[in-house]
Write a structure and sequence with these properties.
The chain is α+β, with helices and mostly antiparallel strands. The protein is 39% helix and 23% strand. It has 5 helices and 4 strands, in the order E-E-E-E-H-H-H-H-H. Strands 1-2 form a two-stranded antiparallel sheet. The protein has a two-stranded antiparallel sheet with strand order 3-4.
Length: 122
C-alpha cells in the first residue's frame, strides 16, 4: 500500500511525496508443507516472522488473520497448513509439542538437597 504525505523543506515549503513498501522476493521454508516457497514479502513482515514467531513462516501464517494476508497464495498456504495440522492432531502424530512426563519428587530428593539457610535480618 502506497502512502502519501508532504516533504517539508527548510523554508517550510511543502511538496507532495509518496512512500512505497519495501517488497523483497524471498525463499522461505514451510515446516508443515516440507517445501521451499518463493514469496514476495515486505521487510516489516520478515522482521515480524523473525522476532515474534522465532523465524517460523508457518506460525506467522497460522496466527495472522486472512484479511491481513491479502494474497490468495498466502491464504491457500495457510489453509493447507491448517489442514495438515488437523490431520496430524487427529492421528496423534504431532507429539513434538508435548512435554515429556516429569518424575514426581520423593522425600529422598528433598533430603538430598539439604536445608536451605535462612536469611539473616539486618
Amino acid at each position: 500500500m502506497t502512502r502519501f504525505g508532504n516533504k517539508i523543506a527548510d523554508s517550510g515549503r511543502r511538496t507532495r511525496r509518496s512512500w512505497k513498501p519495501n517488497v523483497q522476493t524471498k525463499t522461505l521454508f514451510s515446516e508443515m508443507l516440507q517445501e521451499k516457497l518463493k514469496v514476495r514479502v515486505t521487510t516489516s513482515v520478515l522482521r515480524i516472522i523473525r522476532d515474534r514467531y522465532a523465524g517460523s513462516f508457518d506460525k506467522y501464517l497460522i496466527k495472522t488473520r486472512e484479511e491481513l494476508l491479502r494474497m490468495p497464495l498466502a491464504i491457500d498456504m495457510k489453509r493447507r497448513i491448517l489442514e495438515i495440522y488437523r490431520q496430524r492432531s487427529l492421528a496423534g502424530i504431532d507429539k513434538s509439542k508435548q512435554l515429556p512426563p516429569q518424575p514426581v519428587p520423593t522425600q529422598e530428593d528433598f533430603d538430598a538437597i539439604g536445608s536451605i539457610p535462612k536469611r539473616s535480618s539486618q
